[in-house]
Amino acid sequence: MAGEKRNFDTEAATWDENPARVKLAQDVARAIIGTVKPGPDMDVLDFGCGTGLLTLALQPHVRSVTAVDSSQGMLNVLKNKIRAQKIANVRTRLVDLDQGDALEGTFNLVVSSMTFHHIPDVEVLLERIAGVLTTRGWLAVADLDSDEGKFHDTHEGVFHNGFDRIVMMKYFGNAGFESVRNRTAAMIAKPSLSGEMRTFTIFLMTGKKRV
Asked: Would you state the pLDDT for residue 191?
């Protein structure tokens, strides 16, 4: 299904020029805020932050955001935004789990948008995320519903053709999360490789780390 790891560094400079990406991040942020209700006492980890579209949407609502990505190019774009906007409560961190890097720190909320389908072993990642969450800390994951492999123009670095929500709920439970819920966070209309317009749905799945 997937080829080698995708090089997001080459796409970083123009990433935000796609209005659908910007809208998706806004929709996901709105769904997270409505579900988790993040507050000023929360430290957040954004896993697979990219250029920080979700990071910066959540930043005004929380104490701090640690923005993590495996692409230095993406993080550089976010760093420029942080400097330009004089944001004090966001820091970036290069973490590549495939290279043996570890998730570190302690967080009240971990968020991730459109990253899980690029992760070969989602269950291992969920266990690692649980390890950096406080007791009763929140996890909020937004990703594609099962898409028959028709969402991406290239399957480079794509390890899952979306996810079945019931299976993902089971993964959450196995990793130590309870009160697991899901909702549709966003919809994206885009042409398939054959040229026909298709609508893809993005779910938001949330859960609390068990005591």
From this structure: 75
Given this structure, which CATH class describes domain 8-209? alpha beta
Least Cα distance to 90 among 50, 43, 132, 137 occurs for 43
Backbone phi, psi, residue 204, to 5°: -120, 120
Measured CA to CA, the distance from residue 22 to residue 155 in angstroms comes to 22
Q: Retrieve residue 191's tokens.
A: 């042409």
Q: pLDDT for 10-64, tens place per residue?
A: 566 666 667 888 999 999 999 999 999 999 999 999 999 999 999 999 999 999 9
| Both structure tokens of 82 | 């942080």
Task: Match 């929500």 to its residue by tokens.
Answer: 165
Q: For residue 94, give the H/E element and its range.
A: strand 90-94
